[in-house]
Automatic annotation (TrEMBL):
Pfam families: Thioesterase (PF00975)
The protein's name: Thioesterase TesA-like domain-containing protein
Domain Thioesterase TesA-like residues, every copy: 48-290
Species of the source: Saccharothrix yanglingensis
Gene3D superfamilies: alpha/beta hydrolase (3.40.50.1820)
InterPro entries in UniProt: AB_hydrolase_fold, TesA-like, Thioesterase
Length: 294
């Protein structure tokens, strides 16, 4: 997941991560369309990116300089961010929804999917759904996800402060909300309104408050999900600076894939995979796999 726990991180790296999040927000213009075209044009296979827990796919803008320009890139984004609407009740519904959007954008396969963190779990579920419908998935690329989402980020009511803190951190703000805060939502709004120019300041309250609601639902959906098995080629990016070994991560996916997994190790923390140096390695590997004969 995007925030797998609080750890001591180098100040410079953490600052770069927050700065990039703010830049992504500004570059995306706050667009919350169900399918956000990050790069149009090109005659190569398109890449569809599944969102991390926050529900928006702006983070994948970091991939564009490192992915060959002939590949269009589309970001899938969660319901409930753009306007109030019912949220998916489970991963099957979410995967059907995203598969429908992909098919509208690109009527014919093969389809190529990428997801970082919880986006990797969602991308796997979308691949399952597309294959169930009889469509070819040319590539499923998973960036450091594991099949079962940890319960580090709880959806319990008494953890609303953590969800609000998560919102701040994911959008490049200082996470300052504490467990004993009497009104985490009010504190979230206060922090955002006090920092004009960081991206969320111009959002109406209704849209800001949709963020913890969507994240809470995405967490619940992911934690309940039990993935099936896909037949397509799978490329796995493993962050090597965390506590889990690459071998244990690959082993966790063994029963959910039908062929050997190609693996690329990336020397970084999980949450820093889309910073310039790690994402350059990811983009190069994706380019090579997208160019390979199917």
């Amino acid at each position: 997941m995007d925030r797998s726990g609080v750890s001591a991180l180098p100040a410079a790296r953490e600052f770069a991560w927050a700065r990039q999040r703010r830049a992504d927000l500004r570059a995306a213009g706050g667009v919350l369309d169900p399918v956000l075209t990050l790069r149009a044009g090109g005659d190569g296979p398109a890449l569809f990116c599944a969102p991390p827990l926050v529900g928006a796919s702006w983070c994948y803008l970091a991939l564009l300089p490192h992915l060959a320009p002939e590949h269009p890139v589309h970001g899938l984004q969660s319901r409930g961010l753009r306007r109030p609407e019912p949220l998916p009740v489970d991963m099957a519904e979410l995967a059907r929804d995203f598969a429908d959007r992909i098919r509208i954008t690109q009527p014919h396969g093969p389809y190529h999917l990428f997801g970082w963190s919880n986006g990797g779990n969602t991308a796997h579920a979308i691949a399952e759904e597309l294959e169930r419908r009889g469509h070819e998935v040319g590539l499923l690329a998973i960036a450091d996800a594991t099949p079962h989402l940890p319960h580090t980020l709880s959806v319990a009511d008494d953890n609303l402060w953590l969800l609000c803190d998560f919102v701040l951190r994911e959008f490049g703000y200082q996470p300052v909300i504490e467990p004993d805060d009497p009104d985490p939502v009010a504190r979230l709004l206060e922090v955002v309104r006090a920092r004009p120019g960081l991206g969320l300041h111009e959002w109406p309250d209704r849209q800001l408050l949709a963020l913890p609601r969507v994240i809470r639902n995405n967490v619940a959906v992911a934690q309940r999900h039990r993935p099936g098995r896909v037949r397509c080629p799978v490329l796995f990016f493993a962050a090597t600076a965390g506590p889990r070994t690459t071998g244990s991560k690959l082993a966790s996916w063994a029963e959910h894939v039908s062929r050997p997994i190609d693996v690329v190790e990336v020397d970084c923390e999980h949450e820093h995979m889309l910073l310039p140096e790690p994402v350059a390695r990811i983009g190069a590997a994706l380019t090579a796999h997208l160019a390979a004969p199917s």
